[in-house]
């Protein structure tokens, strides 16, 4: 139960119920769509990218609490960050949700994203937490490909 | 052969079910420190000790390849494999064991029909009729065939309750309809289709019918002669048997008229480099060494199920489903998906403000295994305007106490998201 409480802590439920930066972004110059075919979760990331900086970022989609909160927190964390900083953050975040080694965590610069640390106790849910990030990567690379967690 | 199913009753009492549960070793396992409550039977059922033992016994004592060997072991394996085919025949009341083709599963059975009967009989502008409640196995093979042949896939609509609209179905049966393929018991909604009537309506226009029985065979008695369907398909693993084995039933005259599917050993009568003559049915459709063990173990699973009695199973599960329906509906914020009048085994639901995936995780922590997602039936989810549902699905080994555990776990979901 305590693991569940950590997974579904208040910040996550709040971002699930009231996702930040939700909806289309008219100024977007990059966008990518991702989905998890196992559960049907779907997310679209909209980016306004200028001079290597994420000027603005929005998302839209339908998913579980973990994937929605993760996307919402991600958009908050990335606004104003450089592409290189975003890549670094994703690396840290990925480690946070997959690492077995609690000692190595949390990376100090993760900020609010650290609330998703509970996901590492639920390996089946890692894909939910990282879907938005993989989709972000596709948007940054502008591949135009549909991102799938499978 | 000794079977552990200890009752051959017309009714499954709680005491009888308790005894039957002991035949399934996995039901004594724990998950996250809680007793396992296994409610994902529509995805796959657990296996009785009799089936597990049959697999072990084959490999321990008499395994060999079948049909070609002149030695003792091959004869024993061959006899057991042939007997398994007759068990399937009797189980669904086919006229002949030649009408029973062993395949890998229900999906492969449908693909076989699409690739042989379908390619032979369906051309440009022809129509294949399915329903809006099919799972992907009974959609995709037909889509592929339509694409190849320039044919058209038609979809009979369903009501918001998840019932097929029979009048609309009948209107879609036309001169161009070359095949109807529809589910007997829906995996996402639990709906039991009035298949006898649907077959009759199609046959009145000389249209053959394939029934997808993946869910049906473990929950209700199936008699293919009474249904008069042309094809019937199911998997072993949803019938308390092993994975990797399934069955295509086809009427003898249909199968005779169809070309072979895959080429290779066991489906040939003679081969020269100039010409191959093919075996008769069912071997024409069984290229290569079959899943010998799978078929034999499926036969044992069928023995087991018949010993429990499908009529008794159907009655018991209907009573359990009605109890579960009542209990889950009493939970505030819970909405049932799929409320057909004729239903079996499946309790699909959603909770306001909680994604089914989150329900699945929280229930799992209480030891309750359900399925959360689209159940490989995305079009039916789209029809009902849902991304996914949480689905509890029952077998005869489930109990009221397990339903209570499910409901208690659903209250925990409410608390967490409250």
Automatic annotation (TrEMBL), chain A:
What Gene Ontology terms for biological process does this UniProt record contain?
iron-sulfur cluster assembly
> What domain of life is recorded for the organism?
Bacteria
Q: Which Pfam families match?
A: NifU_N
SUPFAM superfamilies associated with the record: SufE/NifU (SSF82649)
The record, for Gene3D superfamilies, names: 3.90.1010.10
The molecular function terms in GO held by this entry are:
iron ion binding; iron-sulfur cluster binding
* Segments traversing the membrane: none
- Give the PANTHER family listed for this entry: IRON-SULFUR CLUSTER ASSEMBLY ENZYME NIFU HOMOLOG
Protein name from the UniProt record: SUF system FeS assembly protein, NifU family
Lineage of origin = Bacteria, Bacillati, Cyanobacteriota, Cyanophyceae, Gloeobacterales
Automatic annotation (TrEMBL), chain B:
Write down the Gene3D superfamilies for this protein, in alphabetical order: Aspartate Aminotransferase, domain 1, Type I PLP-dependent aspartate aminotransferase-like (Major domain)
Could you say which cofactors this protein requires?
Answer: pyridoxal 5'-phosphate
- Per the UniProt entry, the Enzyme Commission number(s) are 2.8.1.7
What reaction(s) does this enzyme catalyze? Answer: (sulfur carrier)-H + L-cysteine = (sulfur carrier)-SH + L-alanine
PROSITE patterns in UniProt: AA_TRANSFER_CLASS_5
A GO BP entry = cysteine metabolic process
Q: Which SUPFAM superfamilies match?
A: PLP-dependent transferases (SSF53383)
Q: Does the keyword Transferase apply?
A: yes
| Role | Catalyzes the removal of elemental sulfur and selenium atoms from L-cysteine, L-cystine, L-selenocysteine, and L-selenocystine to produce L-alanine.
Stated family: Belongs to the class-V pyridoxal-phosphate-dependent aminotransferase family. Csd subfamily.
Q: What is this protein called?
A: Cysteine desulfurase
Q: Native species of this protein?
A: Gloeobacter kilaueensis (strain ATCC BAA-2537 / CCAP 1431/1 / ULC 316 / JS1)
């Amino acid at each position: 139960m305590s693991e569940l409480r950590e997974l579904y802590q208040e910040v996550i439920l709040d971002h699930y119920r009231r996702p930040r930066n939700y909806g289309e972004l008219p100024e977007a110059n990059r966008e990518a769509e991702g989905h998890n075919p196992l559960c049907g979760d779907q997310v679209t990331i909209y980016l306004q990218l200028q001079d290597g900086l994420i000027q603005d970022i929005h998302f839209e989609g339908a998913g579980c609490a973990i994937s929605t909160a993760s996307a919402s927190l991600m958009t908050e964390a990335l606004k104003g960050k450089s592409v290189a900083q975003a890549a670094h953050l994703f690396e840290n975040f990925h480690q946070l949700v997959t690492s077995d080694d609690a000692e190595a965590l949390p990376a100090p610069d993760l900020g609010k994203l650290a609330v998703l640390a509970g996901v590492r106790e639920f390996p089946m849910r890692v894909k939910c937490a990282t879907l938005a990030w993989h989709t972000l990567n596709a948007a940054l690379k502008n591949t135009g490909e549909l991102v799938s967690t499978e | 052969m000794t079977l552990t199913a200890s009752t051959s009753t017309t009714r499954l009492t709680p005491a009888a079910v308790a005894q039957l549960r002991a035949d399934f070793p996995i039901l004594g396992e724990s998950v996250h420190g809680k007793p396992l409550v296994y409610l994902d039977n529509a995805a796959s059922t657990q296996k009785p000790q009799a089936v597990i033992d049959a697999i072990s016994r084959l490999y321990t004592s008499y395994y060999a390849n079948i049909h070609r060997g002149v030695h003792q072991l091959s004869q024993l394996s061959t006899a057991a494999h042939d007997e398994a085919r007759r068990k399937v025949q009797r189980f669904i009341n086919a006229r002949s064991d030649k009408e029973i083709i062993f395949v890998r599963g229900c999906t492969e059975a449908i693909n076989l029909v699409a690739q042989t009967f379908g390619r032979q009989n369906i051309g440009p502008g022809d129509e294949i009729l399915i329903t809006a409640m099919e799972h992907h196995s009974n959609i995709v093979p037909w889509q592929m065939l339509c694409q190849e042949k320039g044919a058209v896939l038609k979809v009979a609509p369903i009501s918001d309750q998840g019932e097929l609209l029979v009048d609309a179905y009948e209107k879609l049966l036309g001169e161009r309809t070359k095949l109807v393929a529809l589910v007997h018991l829906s995996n996402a909604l639990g709906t039991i289709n009035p298949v006898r009537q649907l077959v009759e309506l199609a046959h009145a226009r000389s249209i053959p019918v394939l029934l997808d029985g993946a869910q049906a065979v473990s929950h209700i008695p199936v008699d293919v002669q009474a249904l008069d369907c042309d094809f019937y398909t199911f998997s072993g693993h949803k019938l308390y048997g092993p994975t990797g084995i399934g069955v295509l039933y086809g009427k003898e005259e249909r199968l005779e008229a169809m070309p072979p599917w895959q080429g290779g050993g066991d489906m040939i009568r003679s081969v020269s480099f100039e010409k191959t003559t093919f075996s008769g049915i069912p071997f024409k459709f069984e290229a290569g060494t079959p899943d010998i063990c799978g078929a034999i173990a499926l036969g044992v699973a069928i023995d087991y199920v018949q010993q429990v009695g499908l009529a008794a199973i159907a009655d018991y599960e209907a009573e359990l489903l009605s109890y579960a329906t009542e209990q889950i509906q009493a939970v505030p914020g819970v909405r049932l998906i799929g409320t057909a009048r004729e239903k079996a085994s499946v309790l699909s639901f959603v909770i306001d403000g909680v994604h089914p995936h989150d329900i699945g995780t929280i229930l799992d922590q209480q030891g309750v295994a359900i399925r959360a997602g689209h159940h490989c039936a995305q079009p039916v989810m789209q029809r009902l305007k849902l991304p996914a549902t949480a689905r509890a699905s029952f077998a005869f080994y489930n109990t009221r106490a397990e339903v209570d555990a499910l409901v208690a776990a659903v209250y925990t979901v409410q608390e967490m998201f409250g």
